[in-house]
């Protein structure tokens, strides 16, 4: 007799591991299947996010920012730090240690919550049976009342730039360079391309980002994207829009990329090339042909608003389903599904998932952009506040960027908060909380914000919506 669980989760990324922990907390007998092997050759939990995504990229962003500050930001404070150098292997080693600590921590959480870890590859069979092929090749079948598919995503590869070990790499390879490349090419000016490009630019690489679209960050509010492009360009990132990569050729230790832009075909040679053109769901060998779960031609598993697939008792969450490919979206879906399985009426507000780009300054937003609202014919009032007018930002010598609050012109309800500036990721969360409770710009303006904080920029932008900002001249006075 095969072992039977209330819930079997396939994949231990931020979607799967969170779902498994929540299900176990709710008293459900839960197993989670994971096959990914980390650098030490052992199964490593945490998925893309902890192993090769959010966490390692932020570790390198933080290290490289400190180096950059020591070089260029200290002088203004009267700090002289000559001969600051970077030890790349030490920086990578620190990143690896953080990954090890966090991924190991998930195993501890599984034990503490009573989640059974099944190491190996999981495959959904008919009738909610799940086949687990262990790392030794042995298979076992477990039975489940509920199955949660959380198989995540992997980088897209494009024919013009096939990966070549150590030279043409995806985001995972770009987290493990052993030295700073002199000339770095990045294909794709999306979140991942900009973050990884920034890491190596701060350490001294000459970075060229090749982006096929004419528009920079099309999902962002246009004002934020325009400001972002201006600031990143000033930092030395050469972002070439309207530039489509059509081929690449590796010669020895360098790669020559062919691309077309408005002037025709061109070539440029780099020491390393990062392919960051997006991610696609992982569903290879996940679904037996008779399991009943359907996916589209790109591999996304079809689900409804509650992450239920077409098979009762089978759910799918995170990067392998529709929606933003973000860790916090995956985790919240995991919680929602676990709670629904336990009989709760959980749901998720897909309209208020914050997006963040961890460049410096960070860019972050929640809700709708001004252009999207205008396209929908919604009349809005907009308030902005530049960090250049924030005392706290001045004290920190970190004044680039602005906060923008968009409110419905009729009801004053906040419909979007868009920020580029220091700690934008944390500041935008205040906007998200306010919006979840249906706050008006006036409500936000009436809150008491500590002084001096970066958060005051959000306060002032909310006041500016109705012409009441104190520390800048208002465009309209009331
Ligand atoms: P994943 O994290 O991909 O996890 C899926 C897991 O399932 C994997 O461990 C995989 O091995 C396992 N698996 C798949 N199939 C099977 C199977 N058949 N059997 C057993 N196991 C299986 N998001 C943010 O929100 N913030 C960030 O700052 C951020 N930075 C990023 C930086 C980079 C460089 C990258 C690449 C991504 C980043 N992301 C970020 C995106 C984030 O990592 C993903 O959105 C998130 O990991 C999705 O979670 P998931 O659980 O759906 O899938
Ligand atoms: P994202 O999906 O946000 O990670 O962004 C990936 C980016 O890569 C998108 O903006 C694409 O337009 C861009 N892209 C995809 N293929 C190419 C290509 N061949 N040349 C240049 N840019 C590309």
Description:
- The structure is a single chain.
- The protein is α/β, with parallel strands linked by helices and 478 residues long.
- The chain has three domains: 2-153 and 278-340, FAD/NAD(P)-binding domain (3-Layer(bba) Sandwich); 166-276, FAD/NAD(P)-binding domain, CATH 3.50.50; 360-464, Enolase-like, domain 1.
- Helices cover 31% and strands 25% of the residues.
- It has helices spanning 16-25, 47-52, 54-73, 88-113, 171-174, 191-202, 222-234, 327-341, 370-375, 391-395, 424-436, 441-446, 456-465, and strands at residues 4-10, 30-34, 116-119, 121-124, 129-133, 139-149, 153-155, 168-169, 183-187, 206-210, 238-240, 244-251, 254-261, 264-270, 272-275, 279-281, 314-316, 355-357, 362-367, 380-386, 402-408, 414-421.
- Strand 1 (4-10), helix 1 and strand 2 form a beta-alpha-beta unit.
- The longest helix is centred in the N-terminal third of the chain and has 26 residues, at 88-113.
- The radius of gyration is 24 Å and the shape is globular.
- The mean pLDDT is 97.
- Bound molecules: flavin-adenine dinucleotide and adenosine monophosphate (AMP).
- Flavin-adenine dinucleotide binds at residues 10-16, 33-36, 47-49, 53-54, 57, 121-122, 150-153, 171, 192, 282, 286, 318-319, 325-328, 330, 358.
């Amino acid at each position: 007799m095969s072992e039977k669980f209330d819930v079997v989760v396939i994949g231990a990324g931020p979607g799967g591991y969170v779902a498994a922990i929540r299900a176990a907390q709710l008293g459900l007998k839960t197993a989670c299947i994971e096959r990914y092997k980390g650098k030490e050759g052992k199964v490593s939990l945490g998925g893309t996010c902890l192993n090769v995504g959010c966490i390692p990229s932020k570790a390198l962003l933080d290290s490289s920012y400190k180096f950059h500050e020591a070089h260029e930001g200290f002088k203004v404070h009267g700090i002289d730090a000559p001969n600051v150098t970077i030890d790349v292997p030490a920086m990578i080693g620190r990143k690896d240690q953080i990954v090890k600590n966090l991924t190991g921590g998930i195993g501890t959480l599984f034990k503490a919550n009573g989640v059974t870890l099944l190491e190996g590859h999981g495959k959904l069979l008919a009738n909610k049976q799940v086949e687990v092929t262990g790392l030794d090749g042995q298979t076992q079948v477990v039975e489940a009342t509920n199955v949660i598919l959380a198989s995540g995503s992997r980088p897209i590869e494009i024919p013009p730039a096939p990966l070549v070990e150590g030279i043409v790499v995806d985001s995972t390879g770009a987290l493990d360079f052993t030295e700073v490349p002199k000339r770095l090419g990045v294909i794709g000016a999306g979140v991942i391309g900009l973050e990884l490009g920034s890491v190596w630019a701060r350490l001294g690489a000459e970075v060229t980002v090749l982006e096929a679209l004419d528009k920079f960050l099309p999902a962002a509010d246009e004002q934020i994207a325009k400001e972002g492009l201006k600031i990143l360009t000033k930092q030395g990132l050469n972002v070439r829009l309207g530039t489509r990569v059509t081929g690449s050729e590796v010669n020895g230790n360098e790669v020559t990329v062919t691309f077309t832009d408005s002037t025709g075909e061109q070539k440029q040679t780099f020491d390393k090339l990062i392919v960051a053109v997006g991610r696609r769901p992982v569903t290879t060998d996940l679904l037996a042909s008779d399991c009943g779960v359907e996916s589209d031609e790109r591999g996304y598993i079809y689900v409804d608003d509650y992450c239920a697939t077409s098979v009762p008792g089978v759910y799918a969450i995170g990067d392998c389903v529709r929606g933003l490919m973000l860790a916090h979206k995956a985790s919240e879906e995991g919680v929602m599904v676990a709670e629904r399985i336990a009989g709760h009426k959980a749901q998720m507000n897909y309209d208020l998932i914050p997006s963040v780009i961890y460049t410096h300054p960070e860019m972050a937003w929640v809700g709708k952009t001004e252009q999207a609202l205008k396209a929908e014919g919604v009349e809005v009032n907009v308030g902005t506040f530049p960090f250049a007018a924030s005392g706290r930002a001045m004290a920190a010598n970190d004044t680039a960027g602005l906060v923008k609050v968009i409110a419905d012109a009729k009801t004053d309800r906040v419909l979007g908060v868009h920020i580029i500036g220091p700690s934008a990721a944390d500041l935008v969360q205040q906007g998200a909380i306010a919006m979840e409770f249906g706050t008006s710009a006036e409500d936000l303006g009436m809150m008491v914000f500590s002084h001096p904080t970066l958060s005051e920029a959000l306060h002032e932008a909310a006041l500016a919506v109705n012409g009441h900002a104190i520390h800048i001249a208002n465009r309209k006075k009331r």
